[in-house]
Amino acid sequence: MSPPTPRLRRALLVLTAALAALLCALAPLPAAADGPADTDPADTARAAGDGPADWTARPAGGGADRDARPYVYLEGTPGTALQDRLAVTNSGRAPLTVRLRGDGRAGAWIGFAADTVTVPARTRAEVPLALTVPPDAVPGDASGEVVADDGDEEIRVPVRVRIGGPTLAALTVEDVEISGGTIRYALVNRGNAMLEPRLAVRADGMFGTLLDRPERPLPLELAPGRRVERTEPWPDAPALDAVTVRLRVTAPGGARDEAEASATYIPVAPAVGGGLLVLGGLALLGSGAYRRRRTRRGDPEPPGAESADDRQPTTETRPLVKAGPLVKAGAES
Predict the structure, then answer these.
(1) Quick check: 122 and 85 in contact, CB under 8 A?
(2) Chain centre distance of CA 54
(3) Which of 79, 83, 84, 146 could form a Cys-Cys staple with 157, CB 3.0–4.6 A?
(4) How far apart are the first and last CA of the chain?
(5) What stretches of the chain adopt beta strand conformation (E)?
(6) How distant, in Å, are the alpha carbons of 19, 30, 284 from that of 10?
(7) Which of 288, 263, 266, 264 is nearest to 275 (CA)?
(8) What 3-state DSSP class applies to 93?
(9) Which H helix or E strand runs over 42?
(10) What span, in angstroms and rounded, lies between the C-alpha atoms of 202 and 239?
(11) Residues 150, 207: Cα–Cα separation, whole Å
(12) Residue-level pLDDT, tens digit, the chain, 333 residues
């Protein structure tokens, strides 16, 4: 078979690269681990009272029940100063020194009677705190934390503030993506109220509904202006189908939004096998077309090739001439 021309070789390389890119695009990405992609800080922060075995910090005045006041809750209008107390209990045998600070939006509004407190052994100290709501604060909910730190470990006490005035509950679901057995999305609090979102998921394929999860509460509180990226596991995603996934989120106060995304599932092994067959067929067709085109044009043979006639031995016949003296015929005298 004659070698292909440079133009044909380039065409085959382009087709091979395009097919490889298509196969890579069709191959599903590794599924992410199940569970939410983002965790609310309140979920990871220590609950009020939890912490080192020899000392605790929690809102004061909660009574004997440690869960009576799991967080500091205050209400007020913009420009007002709100007061509360933090209790630090040292159950160890040595004095305890802790530093106090605020963290988060509402935490930045907090001032303490003393930023550093030393508590004697087996003693409880109550530290007054004041939270001043900024005059330009937007009505609604704000959150933060009081952080008590002894230099080695810290305890975080949640703070919730309800700012008086008209509130707006607004929630959006954005950036929905489907990757293998995982659905990714983002929730954004567009209002000024603290939200507790609820989620419903539905997926439809070419032949009917594939997934239908009823509305359920999500394990997070979404503060105003906050964005959270999460994942929804889909372990029984189809192997071959074209699907549309719809997410619906709601929250108390009338917040509601919907978003959707589409994806096509194609098995990897059949796609690779079919791609190789297509590539082989294209190569055969290209070689055949090259030979037919060369035959029609009467292209000369490549350098170094010999024709059938050139390979036959050539014998040249010439008359044999014998050299000798010339004799002139005549009568002898």
Answers:
(1) no
(2) 41
(3) 146
(4) 82
(5) 55-59, 72-76, 81-90, 96-103, 110-112, 116-119, 123-132, 140-149, 154-163, 171-179, 182-189, 198-205, 208-217, 227-233, 241-251, 255-265
(6) 14, 34, 15
(7) 266
(8) coil
(9) helix 41-44
(10) 17
(11) 61
(12) 555 565 555 455 545 555 555 555 555 544 443 433 443 443 434 444 455 679 999 999 865 555 568 899 999 999 999 999 999 999 999 999 999 999 999 999 999 999 999 999 999 999 999 999 999 888 888 999 999 999 999 999 999 999 998 888 999 999 999 998 999 999 999 998 889 999 999 999 999 999 999 999 999 999 888 999 999 999 999 989 999 999 999 999 899 999 999 999 987 655 445 555 555 566 566 665 556 665 665 555 555 544 444 444 444 444 444 444 444 444 443
pTM above 0.70, yes or no: no
User: How far is Cα 185 from Cα 177, in angstroms, rounded to an integer?
Assistant: 6
Q: How many residues does the chain have?
A: 333
Q: What are phi and psi of 59, to 5 degrees?
A: -60, 140
* Tokens describing residue 127: 């530290």
Contact 185, 32 (CB under 8 A): no
Structure tokens at 155: 């305890």
Amino acid at 66: R
Secondary structure (DSSP) of 95-128: -EEEEEEEEHHHHTTEEES-SEEEE-TTEEEEEE
243-271 burial: b if 16+ Cβ within 10 Å, else e: bebbbbbbbebebebebebebebbeeeee
Cα–Cα distance between 179 and 62 in angstroms, integer? 47
Burial class (CB in 10 A: 0-12, 13-18, 19+), 30: exposed
Tokens of 133: 């709501």
Question: Tokens 């087709």 label which residue?
Answer: 15
What tokens were used for 320?
Answer: 């044999």
In whole angstroms, give the CA distance from residue 221 to residue 237: 29
